Amino acid sequence: MRRDPIEADEAEAADIVRAPLTMLDEDAVRLALAGGSVVEWNRLSFRTHEDVNQFLRVWGCDLQKDGWARERVRYVYNQAVEYLEEQLGLHFAPEVRRPRDVRDAFLRASMRERFSRHRIQYCAILKLVHVINHLEMQELRNQVAVRELDLLEVANNKVLDAARMMREEGLPVQAFYGNRKTRPSVITKLLAKRESTAATVFDKLRFRLVTAEREDVVPCIAWIFRHLLPFPAIIPGESLNTLLSAEELEIDGREDGERATLAMLRGAPAVNPHSGSGYRVINFVAGMPVRVYDAPGVEVPRHRAFLGEVVSVLTEFQVVDQATDIANESGENRHDLYKLRQTQKVYERLGRSMTGGNSARGVDEEGSDG
After folding, report:
1. Domain ranges of the chain
2. Which of 91, 170, 201, 255 has its CA 20 to 30 A from that of 164?
């Protein structure tokens, strides 16, 4: 990926810190690498109210800071219950239907009993909370007059602030930089893909994180989901993991994560058909929550409990360790050869008899795998 000197973070890192992972961290990392969906889950891994506070804070809903945030969480929870009762005919116990503290629903959905009727009910409601929140973020995006370019700028600044925080906290980050996909690059990618619609290009805004060692990859991804991206925002089916094995992701030898996610990790990894056979990377796409009112010229409404403050900005993240990053720039993995293979596919799809003078150098000069 070509570095933009304006966006590159050149700050010196603090002393390296490798904090232990929680079960919630592990589940989030596995979900990102498998490209799964939380709608398939039947158990969460929240342990305390503070776990839930932090999770909602990353969603842009700070219960400890904003009075409207508690109203917002309760409002969406009630919508979820109403849908399940009225549309699907489900019935819930009173304490499930209206918990005294909505955060308790997250804790009860995390119970470790092998079979718990209440846990299953809480999980069903929280799945609807996720779906409704997604729909209402899109509705807010449609209601607010804001340019996509401005939203991308807000999202870019949010990620770079997080990158600086990672360094300040001593995470083993060797490099963290990003760029925006150019219009020619988007067109090339559409032509090279089977799904030739703009909806299939998720990485208009993309970032690459390079860690010091291979063992640092998982902790750094976990940090991202703890402080920048809520793990349910992962776009299902858009992850690529050719770096870490399923065994490496059964962290500490435990297999108590979500079975659907673990099964996906043990399956054959997806591959980018234009990459070299030795190219190794972790790649995932997420709808990053961005506070829409941080964009210039957007006025904050009086009532925010109904639609919240955030909209979703699709963002791609690539994560690799330094040694692998160097290896990825050698032999058949070289980026110029990647672009050549991609361009050859474009010519093939446009017409097998077509040739072009630009095929040797590729259609664009950006430095990302995809």
Report:
1. 23-36+146-350
2. 201
Residue 181: which residues within 8 A CB-CB, separation 6 or more?
Answer: 189, 201, 203, 204, 205, 206, 366, 368
Three-class DSSP category at 6: coil
Predicted TM-score (pTM) of this structure: 0.81
Helix (H) or strand (E) run with residue 320 in it: strand 310-321
- Of residues 124, 113, 129, 134, the one with CA closest to residue 40: 124
* CA-closest candidate to residue 189, choices 231, 238, 148, 232: 238
CA distances from 174 to 13, 53, 358 (A): 8, 30, 34
Burial of 345 (0-12, 13-18, 19+ CB in 10 A): middle
Closest to 35 (Cα-Cα) out of 223, 237, 192: 237
Q: How far apart are CA 173 and CA 175, in angstroms?
A: 6
Domain 23-36+146-350 class in CATH = alpha beta
Q: What is the DSSP letter of 231?
A: G
Question: 238 and 33 in contact (C-beta within 8 Å)?
Answer: no
